[in-house]
Write a structure and sequence with these properties.
Structural class: mainly alpha
Distance between the termini: 66 Å
Helix content: 55-70%
Strand content: under 5%
Shape: elongated
């Protein structure tokens, strides 16, 4: 067996570290404050697949069940003696849920508005990009602007808009038989 020399590929130089933008810095400040806010929540329980199943099983019950069960156990010593229901813990959990309901609403509103802010900034920039694309196409038609024409081709390549997938006419999902069309006579062979 002969040794065939394999050409070596020169190592790729690592890219220089990116200089953080002012937005990177404010985002880092926000995340630090956000993590500090999370630390303020007593007994915070992050979502986990093992606990999510348990939570999903019981969360759909009415919050009123907690109140009525507290009242039943406090009013009936024969229920309290069983020691299967911690009234103080149940009351504390109910108070926690009531207090943090407004926080949940505020965080959901923040999420929606922050996403919209990013989408609005993207929309503004894309509108400017499309205007510049139209201008560049006009300038790129001039033979003396060959470099502009190359950039127009790059912009055209990146102009693709993601399309929503729609069911094509006559096609049905795998394993499904299409329903007969009542306006057409049945096909016989």
């Amino acid at each position: 067996m002969t040794d065939i020399p394999v050409p070596s590929v020169p190592p790729v130089a690592p890219e220089p570290p990116r200089t953080p933008s002012p937005y990177d810095l404010t985002a880092a400040q926000f995340l630090a404050a956000f993590n500090s806010a999370i630390a303020l929540i007593p007994a915070f329980v992050p979502k986990h697949p093992e606990t999510a199943k348990f939570v999903r099983r019981y969360v759909s019950f009415s919050d009123d069940l907690i109140t009525s069960t507290i009242a039943a156990v406090e009013a009936n010593p024969e229920l309290a003696v069983v020691k299967k229901f911690d009234v103080d813990k149940a009351r504390a959990n109910d108070q926690f849920m009531t207090a943090y309901r407004t926080v949940i609403d505020a965080v959901a509103e923040l999420e929606a508005n922050l996403k919209f802010t990013c989408q609005a900034r993207k929309a503004e920039t894309i509108a400017d990009c499309l205007q510049m694309f139209a201008i560049a196409k006009g300038i790129g038609r001039d033979p003396s602007s060959a470099s502009v024409a190359v950039h127009v081709e790059n912009m055209k390549r990146d102009l693709k808009r993601p399309r929503k997938k729609t069911a094509k006419a006559g096609k049905t999902p795998a394993g499904k038989t299409p329903a007969p069309d009542p306006t057409k006579p049945p096909v016989t062979q």
